[in-house]
Amino acid sequence: MRSTATSSFRGLYPPIETFHEEYLNVSDGHKLYVEQSGNPNGIPVIFLHGGPGGGTSPTQRRFFDPQKFHIILFDQRGCGKSEPHASLENNTTWDLIKDIEAIREHLNIEKWAVFGGSWGSTLALLYAIVHPERTNALILRGIFLMRERELDWFYGGGTGALFPEEWSRFKNTIPHHEHNDLIAAYHTRLTSDQIPQKEQLMYAKEWSLWEASTVTLNPDQHSRTLSVDPRFALAFARIEAHYFKNKGFLDNSNYILDNCHKLQGIPITLVQGRYDAICPPVSAYELAKEMPWTTLKIVPVAGHSAFEPAITHELICATDDL
Q: Torsions phi, psi of 46, nearest 5?
């Protein structure tokens, strides 16, 4: 395990266009937006976005050398360009793992590298635990293990102690008597048929804005603006609340740490911001302790976002090293 200390940061690769886009029919009426870019004969790598419910963007292609990598992005169930939009039906962690395998089989890829941040790191770890034989390498950022204590940190006041003005707005949107479980309170308002759509959208924007307000070390107006886009916010908030209310659909809160020994032999790089207020470094540290073959890179001056310069630098270096 080592810390990053560099004054010259690598930046994202130049923008690139896709060479193929499609909708893949998977189970239960869901259609996934899947795109490919880079070198079709290169090293296959699949990008797993955050949230759950965050969707992908063209910028995320740029973490990879387009001459070296066959870059695959997809929007998970219910978000981004995938259909039906904001759907919670048959939308669980285990459905997503099956979807990743469906994409791999559809593209006739034997093994690939898996790249994910935040919830994408959770999903990447779980996918690799279930399918280690299909995983060449893991590059993970902003480690989130879907433990109850991590949810309590972000939705129970831990992050709120660092961002008190944003926390006050997020918390006080809900009546005081429900403050003991804000995930459940928002979940009800985001999913109940008794709540008018306009009101659901208001709660969705509040949920989304809370996360966007805490994602970077320095305030990021672009993230805040994107977070309240109606289409984005509705999918993001509904799907996140759905997953978090159900504790990620895992058997127990320690599921990943209990099963990560199954990843023995897979090269793994963890990139973690020292001042990540959403996913504090303790989770990355504890995961690396359970997997001593892992490379843990603590970035001294960074929060949670993949697009903070020092985080981007370490992710680019990690992909280049594959």
A: -110, 135
Q: Give yes or no: 118 in active site.
A: yes
* 2-147+249-320 CATH choice from 3.30.1330.60, 3.40.50.1820, 3.40.220.10, 1.20.1050.10: 3.40.50.1820
Among the listed residues 82, 87, 118, 223, the single catalytic one is 118
What b/e string do you get for 200-210 counting C-beta neighbours within 10 Å, with b at 16 or more?
bbebbbbbbbb
> Is position 304 annotated as part of the catalytic site?
yes
Among residues 276, 283, 305, 313, the one annotated as catalytic is 276
Tell me, rounded to whole angstroms, the distance of Cα 240 from its chain centroid. 10
Domain with CATH 3.40.50.1820 in the chain: 2-147+249-320
CA end-to-end span of the chain:
18
Q: Do the Cβ atoms of 23 and 90 come closer than 8 Å?
A: no
pLDDT tens track, the chain, 322 positions: 444 444 589 999 999 999 999 999 999 999 999 999 999 999 999 999 999 999 999 999 999 999 999 999 999 999 999 999 999 999 999 999 999 999 999 999 999 999 999 999 999 999 999 999 999 999 999 999 999 999 999 999 999 999 999 999 999 999 999 999 999 999 999 999 999 999 999 999 999 999 999 999 998 898 999 999 999 999 999 999 999 999 999 999 999 999 999 999 999 999 999 999 999 999 999 999 999 999 999 999 999 999 999 999 999 999 999 9
Rounded CA separation 97/121 (Å)? 13
